[in-house]
From TrEMBL:
Protein name, per record: NAD(P)-binding protein
Entry-linked InterPro entries: NAD(P)-bd_dom_sf (IPR036291), SDR_enzymes (IPR052184), SDR_fam (IPR002347)
Species assigned in the record: Rhizopogon vinicolor AM-OR11-026
PANTHER family documented for this protein: CHAIN DEHYDROGENASE (ATSC), PUTATIVE-RELATED, SHORT-CHAIN DEHYDROGENASE/REDUCTASE SDR
Residues forming coiled coils: none
CDD domains: carb_red_sniffer_like_SDR_c
One Gene Ontology MF term: oxidoreductase activity, acting on the CH-OH group of donors, NAD or NADP as acceptor
Length: 264
């Protein structure tokens, strides 16, 4: 029996983590969502081992409330924390750093990305650390992205997705800092890229489809066998295989859903 807390659990990859982990009735799964009004799919699972908690990772009071609820239910312990919640400004993800219409808009996108994808993750880890120290697994997983990898960015000449990519590179360093501090206590801190995953809830616009096709074209220059995005179900299944086999010797790593540096 293991306990898991998953942020950003209402949809996409976060929901699929909840779905797959809660199929084992021995697991206790805490699904953290920004608003319970968005949790229809979680409610529809109808599983008594799934506890839906309202907590926006940019609100430390909400996170502290969620941690207190976890402590109340588990007896003050937590085995796994999965930092899945994230932010990307999709309306401007096709821009490069020098193509913004104003300095103010660029600053906003950089700070918004950093606030959620870095600061929010750090606060979440800090608030749940006392429970994780009492857990059996002591594993903290942060969902990162291959676009946060310097070699991929240069090799594939990906100049877009800049604020998001920069924030993911930063959270990879935060993951390494925690690993450096807590390795001696048996913790495993892991930053993992889920692959290219189709989490869309609507058909893409023409502009979105054009930008996506441009990026896919660049990726296929290096990976000609790449066939396109995988489903959340496939991504989470592969991620869990990686998460379950990692040990303290792997702490601080930034790897893909395949357990290596192959991001697709």
């Amino acid at each position: 029996m293991s306990s898991y807390a998953i942020t950003g659990a209402a949809r996409g990859i976060g929901f699929e983590f909840v779905n797959q982990l809660s199929t084992d009735p021995e697991n206790t799964v805490f699904a953290l969502v920004r608003s319970k009004t968005t949790a229809d799919r979680l409610v529809a699972l109808g599983r008594p081992n799934v506890h839906i908690l309202e907590a926006d990772i940019t609100n430390t009071n909400g996170l502290k409330y969620a941690a207190a609820e976890v402590a109340r239910i588990t007896g003050s312990s937590l085995d796994y924390l999965i930092n899945n919640a994230g932010f990307v400004e999709s309306e401007r993800d096709g821009l490069t750093l020098e193509s913004y219409s104003s300095e103010e808009l660029l600053t906003k996108d950089l700070l918004d990305s950093f606030k959620v994808n870095v600061v929010g993750v750090i606060h979440t880890i800090n608030i749940f650390l006392p429970l994780l120290k009492n857990g059996k697994a002591k594993k903290v997983v942060t969902i990162s992205s291959g676009v946060g990898d310097l070699d991929l960015t240069i090799g594939f000449e990906i100049a877009t997705f800049a604020p998001y990519s920069i924030s993911k590179a930063a959270v990879n360093m935060a993951n390494a800092k925690y690993a450096a501090q807590y390795k001696s206590e048996g913790f495993v801190f892991l930053a993992i890229s889920p692959g290219v995953v189709d989490t869309s809830t609507r058909p893409p616009t023409a502009d979105e489809l054009e930008r996506f096709n441009v990026m896919i074209g660049k990726l296929r220059k290096v990976y000609p066998d790449f066939t396109g995005p995988i489903t959340p179900e496939t991504s989470v299944r592969m991620q869990l295989e990686v998460i379950n086999r990692t040990t303290v010797d792997d702490t601080g790593a930034f790897i893909s859903h395949k357990g290596n540096k192959e991001w697709l």
